[in-house]
Amino acid sequence: MTRVLMEGSEAIAEAMVAAGCRFFAGYPMTPFTEVLEHMARKLPTHGGVCMNAESELEAVGMAWGAAATGTKAATGSVGQGLSLMQESLSEITLARIPLVVLNMARGQSDYYQATRGGGHGDYRHLVLAPMDAPEAVELVQLAFHWAEKWRNPVLVFGDYYLAHVYQSVDVQPLDFGPLPDRSWALDGTSGGSGRAKLLSPLGDVKQRDDVGYDLQDYYLRRAAETAAMVEGEPPLVETGYLEGAEVVVVAYGTPGKYVRFAVQAMRADGLPVGFVRPITLFPFPTEAVAAASAQARAVAVYENSVGQMIDDVRLAVLGRAPVHFIGGLTLDSSGFGIGPDNDVAVIRSRIEAVLAAASADAANSVGRSRAIREGASQ
Amino acid sequence: MTPPDVVVSRGTLVIDVDACKGCNLCIDACPPGVLVMTTHQVNSRGYRYPELIPGCTGCKACSQVCPDFVFQVYKYETPVRNEVAMPLDRDVDGERTPRGGP
Amino acid sequence: MTTDSQVTIIPTQRPPEQPARLVDDFTPDLIDVGAHHLCPGCGEPVAMRSILEAVADLGAVQRAIAVFGIGCYTAFSNNLDCEVLQALHGRAPSLATGVKRAKPDLLAFTIQGDGDMVNEGLQEVIHAAARGENITCFMLNNGVFGETGGHLTATTVLGQRTKNTLDGRNAKDHGYPILVSNLLAQLQGATYVARAAVNNAGNVAKARRMITRALEVQLQGGGFSFVEILTMCPTGWFVETTEAPDYLSDNLAAVHAIGVVKDDGG
Asked: Each residue of A257-309: pLDDT tens digit?
């Protein structure tokens, strides 16, 4: 094992190369820029191509074209750049083309974009949210595997911390098992055969009067394939200290690592708290959150946004316990730097507040029910 | 009685009548002017379509301008002589008569 | 019946019995099925035929990938027996770039309309040309957005009536057309730029030569090649099918001049 100290952007680039990525296209934007720089430097040394696209629109287009030939391809940006790519991402998904997409986000306000998809139509992307560089090294490679396994784009949700924090990582190629063949890929060879291949968001067979035209049929098949993907890939999640937890804290990505540390420290002090850290944002670990909430007095959600993942938490909790938002936007004045709230002491104090309120509620409700019983017996 | 005229055809066509959408581009494109649109006959889709009269040179102008792939063009090994019952008059403008009319 | 029953009609239901050789078939090899729903008199299938014949003649069928934009011609992609990658409106050049950069041995070409390339996707083709991407872009230019019914595009000529410029395009309200071949020719990365038309047999033959040259430039690794092909759109132009060829000459070709604009290929 060779551990090397490197910034997260470089670790991600190394992981992409280890996964077999040989085409990358991007456009600079903070905090994605360094990934592009690393790929521009590394890919050619592995016989790959890194394109400096004229905008994010063309970046996703070039990656689309490369992926269509069966080449392992990726692109990425920040949420703002991904906004530009949304139409293409919807169509790439409809065309069933594997692609890995990075969002090196500013904060966590792109959760909706990542999990609901910002594009049109009924589509889904699998979304992975690493909490740090070592986990990113694994999840980036998993992303390439899933993309090919399901013939679907996979999004890796990173952030400024992940991009810029130096950590020692050991990037080894990981084998996640066998993959289906790439007979769908275009390489020209089926030309002139009478059944030349088509790769299109509108269908996988020619649509003409003589062969049949039915776009609805294609969309329904795509929907079925999407459902199969969602059911076939169980959510990834990390949970901890749930035994007897009165407050369960849900957080993902870099904040997830902070929350995990805060909960660990609180437990060491005897406070009954636990955590659930979604690793796949889609499919969301609904059952894990539901199970954790069933035992708890309250659920707290910490995310660096005004509240997006909290929707999925509420859906999972389904009223079993009150859900409290303890997150919020936390950036520096540049809008994409490190915010002051990502601090264990700050997070801990917010969890403690929820814990205190939950205990008080519990005491009150015991008092209320005693009063009701006493009142009734009079 | 006018003796029958002889027109030499160096080529000929197979016309896929049902492929035609009646655009008439072939009529104007044909250098010897040997394509005439039907007047009352229509194909299975309701379009009028071209017919061939003697004098084809096998130049394939028709097939090259046709948007609907109506024509197959052949060149005879030996030009064929067609006797035409009625000589094809030309008016002063050099237009051939008769043509597809109303 | 033809007008005069005395006119001799040559039977044309079957191939001739006299010895003859086939000089032009219904469809070239790479067109599976000729039948399509494009309007009568549309020039696009004529242009497509030329392109596919050129690909076949260059022996590049089994390494050809046609990247399609979105327009009337998109439906015609279903008629082709070459591999097709469907792109979004205006975005074919970036996809073709990805295809060619990932697999340089492939013959990657785009099929786009004027609305697709010059409106939605002008940035894409300019950058592809500027970078000297070794792809070939084909633009079918009829001066309208045909698929939506015949609306103004960036190549519509002054005075041209379209559904949203019913009194004719005027410079004050709608600005001037973009002559995209001339624009691209100014970029150093563009090796071969030519403008063709399919409104008569002579022009079709010329178009074929330009198309072949453009594809040869790609096959030789010569950089970016581009052929703009003016096509008839009687529907979009509000003219009879028989008037469309002249309309093309008198209006479109008068502004978007036919000819080789640039040839720096070896």
From this structure: 999 999 999 999 999 999 999 999 999 999 999 999 999 999 999 999 999 99
Q: Quick check: C58 contacting A, CB < 8 Å?
A: no
Q: Is residue C194 packed enough to be buried (19+ CB in 10 Å), middle (13-18) or exposed (0-12)?
A: buried
CATH superfamily of C44-263: Thiamin diphosphate (ThDP)-binding fold, Pyr/PP domains (3.40.50.970)
Residue B72 in contact with partner chain C when CB distance is under 8 A: yes
* Cβ <8 Å between A64 and C29: no
Q: Which residue of C14, C43, C200 is in closest CB contact with B67?
A: C43
Q: What's the rounded Cα separation, in Å, for the pair A263 and C16?
A: 90
Does some domain include residue B39? yes
Which residues, 6 or more positions from A239, have their beta carbon under 8 angstroms from its beta carbon?
A274, A275, A276, A277, A288, A292
Which residues neighbour A364 within 8 Å (Cβ) at sequence distance 6 or greater?
Answer: none
The A residues from 301 to 330 touching C (CB cutoff 8 Å) are none
CA distance B81 to A138: 81
Q: Is ipTM beyond 0.95?
A: no
Number of other residues whose CB lies within 10 A of the CB of residue B82: 18
Q: Could you read off the pLDDT of C177-233 as tens digits, one per residue? A: 999 999 999 999 999 999 999 999 999 999 999 999 999 999 999 999 999 999 999
Is residue B67, in this structure, part of any structural domain at all? yes
Domains annotated for chain A, with CATH where assigned, are 4-169 (3.40.50.970), 237-375 (3.40.50.920)
> Using an 8 Å Cβ cutoff, are A273 and A248 in contact?
yes
The pTM of this model reads 0.92
β pairing state of C151-152 and C144-145: antiparallel
Measured over the CA atoms of residue B2, residue B4, residue B10 and residue B15, the dihedral's sign is: positive
**C-alpha–C-alpha distance, residues A263 and A355, integer Å:** 12
CATH number reported for the structural domain that contains residue B68 in this entry: 3.30.70.3270
Encode pLDDT of A98-111 as tens digits.
999 999 999 999 99
**Nearest-CB residue to C26 (from B21, B36, B71):** B71
Residue C1 corresponds to which tokens in the numbers above? 């019946």
CA dihedral A53, A55, A60, A61 (to 10 degrees): -80
List A166's β-bridge partners, or say none: A7
Reduced to 3 states (helix: H, G, I; strand: E, B; else coil), residue A256 is helix
